[in-house]
Backbone:
């Protein structure tokens, strides 16, 4: 119940009906996820795989797992160092972590999911 209370404020603007909530938050429940076919196609290219590898390397050493620390780590490696646009950079991570290209805000979602599950999902998507 605590996860639901935490996620509701961040999905409020992304849903039109209450019936959309389960689809939007299902990634938070369970250790693994299934990436839908449309989203899987979006992370099968070399750039996406590189994004995921570099994201994993940037996130693994974090000792504080918060949306701010996740945001800073990913922006540094993907935007500043790789020179990617945010949509490209964060899209691959979003799909790896949530299983879909449509989800609640990425950094907050990763914080709620927890470091171990988020990193495992990124590894599995590579």
Residues:
């Amino acid at each position: 119940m605590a996860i639901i209370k935490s996620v509701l404020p961040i999905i409020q603007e992304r849903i039109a009906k209450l019936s959309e909530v389960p689809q939007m938050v299902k990634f938070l429940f369970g250790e693994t996820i299934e990436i839908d076919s449309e989203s899987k196609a979006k992370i099968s290219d070399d750039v996406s795989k590189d994004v995921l590898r570099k994201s994993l390397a940037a996130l693994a050493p974090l000792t504080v797992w918060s949306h701010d620390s996740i945001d800073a780590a990913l922006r540094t490696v993907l935007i500043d160092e790789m020179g990617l646009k945010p949509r490209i950079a964060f899209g691959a991570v979003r799909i790896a972590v949530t299983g879909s290209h449509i989800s609640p805000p990425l950094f907050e979602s990763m914080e709620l999911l927890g470091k171990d599950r988020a990193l495992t999902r990124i590894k599995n998507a590579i």
